[in-house]
Design a protein that fits this description.
Number of helices: 16
Strand order of the largest sheet: 2-10-9-8-7-3-4
Number of strands: 14
CATH superfamily of the largest domain: Type I PLP-dependent aspartate aminotransferase-like (Major domain)
Shape: globular
Strand content: 5-15%
Radius of gyration: 22 Å
Bound molecules: pyridoxal-5'-phosphate
Helix content: 40-55%
Largest sheet: 7 strands, mixed
CATH topology of the largest domain: Aspartate Aminotransferase, domain 2
CATH class of the largest domain: Alpha Beta
C-alpha cells in the first residue's frame, strides 16, 4: 500500500506547496459548494464557507498513493488483520512525533469516523434520556450524536472574558446531575478555535473524575494549531486517574481533507472502558480510506506544516479585514482550527432577522421546517454576498447571533468572500428580500 517512490506527485521542485491557487470544487458533489447550490439555486453561491473541510488540493503523497492503488483494479474485501496494525502503528508514530505522546497501538480502535465512535461511547455509557455535558457553543454534529443515542444535551456555556473563550468550571460542576455520565470535550474547540491548556483539561478532568462522568475527548482538529499556540492531548495529562477516565477520538480527515475517505480512531488507557465501547461499535472500512490516511500520516508532515502556516496567516488576514472594513461583524482570533466564529448581532438587528423569521414561519407551507433568525442571516449572506456560512443555530447555547466561517481555502477566495460580505453589510436593511 505504500506510495510509489519518486513519482510526479511528490514534493514540488521549490519545496513549497501551492495553497494560493483556488481549487474549484463545484460539481464534485461537495457539501460545502454543491449542497448550497442544491439548496439555494444555480449561481447562488460563489464561496462555500460552511462545512468543516478544506478546499486545498490534497497533499501529493495522498494522490500518489491512491493512484498507485488504483492501478490494481480489484476492490475485494480488505484484510483488516493486516491493515489495522499498519494504521494503528502509523497513528501511534504520528502522535509520538508531533505531540510526544505514547499511545499503545493495541489500545486503538479504527472507526469509520469520529461520529460512529462517539455514538458507540454514548450508547455504552449514557442510557437513553440521560444527560450529556457539552461546552457551548459547540460542534453542531454532537447534537446529532445525542439524537442517535437518544440522550439529552446539558449545555454549559463557555465564558468570554478578556477577549477569550474560557471554560466555566463552577457552572460545569453545578450542571452535573444523577443522570450525567458523559461529557463531550472538544479540543481544540469547534467553533471557537480555542486550544485548551493542560491546566484547563486537568481541572475539567478532575471534576469529571470526582463525579464519575466519563470524558469523551474529540480532538479531530488537533493538527491545526496557530503560531505560539499548543494542542494538549487529553491523554497526555500527567494525572493517570484523569486520563483513565477518558477516551480520545481523532482522525486525520480534518488535517488532510480526507473526510469522504471515512477513517478515524479512538483510544483509551482504560481497557475496561475500551472493551465496553467496542461491543457497541462496528467499523466497515474501505481500501482507499486506508491508503489515503496511511500516506497522509506517514508522508504528509511537511504539507501539513505549510498548510498550517498558510491558514494561520489567513486567520490574521480575516481578523484584520473585519476589524478594518466590516464594523457590523465582530471576530476574535482563533487559536487553532480553520474556523472563525463571527458575532453577527449588528447584521441581525439591521435586517431584523427575528421579524423575518417570525413572518416566514407564519406563512410557510406546513411541510416546511421553521427557520431561526440566524438562518435568516445565513440567507442574507447567500442572497447578498453569494457566501455561504454556517448559521449559529445548531451550535447550542451561545449560537444565537453567530455564524461559523470556514477559512480553509485559498486567500483569494477568502478575500472575495470578505469583499462581498463587506458590501452586503453596507447595504443591509429591513427591506432585504431573502426568498
Ligand atoms: C469536532 C468535530 N468532531 C467530529 C466531526 C466529524 O467527524 P467524522 O467525519 O470523522 O465523523 C467534525 C466535523 O466537522 C468536527 O468538527
Amino acid at each position: 500500500m505504500a506510495a510509489a517512490a519518486g513519482s510526479a506527485f511528490q514534493v514540488p521542485a521549490n519545496g513549497k506547496y501551492d495553497f494560493d491557487t483556488t481549487y474549484n470544487r463545484f460539481g464534485s458533489h461537495s457539501t460545502k459548494f454543491d449542497q448550497q447550490i442544491r439548496v439555494y439555486g444555480k449561481g447562488s453561491v460563489d464561496v462555500g464557507m460552511g462545512i468543516a473541510d478544506i478546499d486545498f488540493k490534497a497533499a501529493p503523497c495522498i494522490t500518489d498513493a491512491l493512484s498507485a492503488r488504483m492501478k490494481h483494479e480489484n476492490w475485494g474485501y480488505l484484510d483488516m488483520g493486516e491493515a489495522t496494525p499498519m494504521m494503528t502503528e502509523a497513528i501511534a508514530a504520528w502522535n509520538k512525533k508531533h505531540y510526544g505522546i505514547d499511545i499503545d497501538p493495541n489500545t486503538m480502535v479504527l472507526s469509520a469516523g469520529v461520529h460512529p465512535g462517539l455514538i458507540a461511547a454514548l450508547i455504552t455509557f449514557s442510557p437513553k434520556g440521560s444527560r450529556v455535558l457539552l461546552q457551548t457553543p459547540t460542534y453542531n454534529g454532537f447534537y446529532s450524536d445525542l439524537a442517535f443515542s437518544q440522550t439529552k444535551a446539558e449545555d454549559v456555556p463557555l465564558k468570554f472574558v478578556g477577549g477569550k473563550f474560557a471554560m466555566d468550571f463552577e457552572e460545569f460542576e453545578k450542571r452535573i446531575a444523577h443522570d450525567t455520565h458523559t461529557f463531550i470535550l472538544c479540543n481544540p474547540q469547534n467553533p471557537t478555535g480555542n486550544c485548551w491548556s493542560a491546566e484547563d483539561l486537568t481541572k475539567i478532568g478532575e471534576i469529571c473524575l470526582r463525579h464519575r462522568v466519563i470524558v469523551l475527548s474529540d480532538e479531530i482538529h488537533c493538527d491545526w494549531i496557530g503560531k505560539g499556540q499548543k494542542y494538549t492531548p487529553f491523554a497526555s495529562l500527567p494525572n493517570k486517574a484523569i486520563v483513565n477516565n477518558s477516551l480520545t477520538f481523532k482522525a486525520a480527515s480534518k488535517s488532510f481533507g480526507l473526510a469522504a475517505h471515512k477513517l478515524a480512531w479512538f483510544h483509551s488507557t482504560n481497557p475496561d472502558l475500551l472493551a465496553r465501547v467496542k461491543v457497541n461499535h462496528r467499523a466497515d472500512l474501505n481500501t482507499m480510506g486506508i491508503v489515503a490516511n496511511q500516506a497522509a500520516i506517514t508522508q504528509g508532515d511537511e504539507w501539513l506544516r505549510q498548510a498550517n502556516e498558510y491558514v494561520d496567516g489567513t486567520h490574521d488576514m480575516v481578523v484584520n479585514y473585519i476589524s478594518d472594513k466590516i464594523p457590523m461583524l465582530k471576530v476574535h482570533r482563533a487559536q487553532g482550527t480553520y474556523l472563525t466564529w463571527l458575532d453577527v448581532t449588528a447584521v441581525a438587528e439591521k435586517i431584523n432577522s427575528k421579524q423575518l423569521a417570525a413572518d416566514y414561519n407564519k406563512s410557510k407551507a406546513a411541510n416546511m421546517p421553521n427557520l431561526t433568525p440566524e438562518q435568516m442571516v445565513e440567507r442574507f449572506f447567500v442572497k447578498n454576498a453569494k457566501v455561504h456560512l454556517n448559521s449559529g443555530t445548531g451550535y447550542g447555547t451561545g449560537g444565537a447571533n453567530h455564524m461559523r466561517m470556514n477559512i480553509g481555502t485559498s486567500r483569494k477566495l477568502v478575500e472575495t468572500a470578505l469583499n462581498n460580505m463587506a458590501s452586503a453589510c453596507k447595504s443591509a436593511s429591513t427591506n432585504t428580500n431573502l426568498f
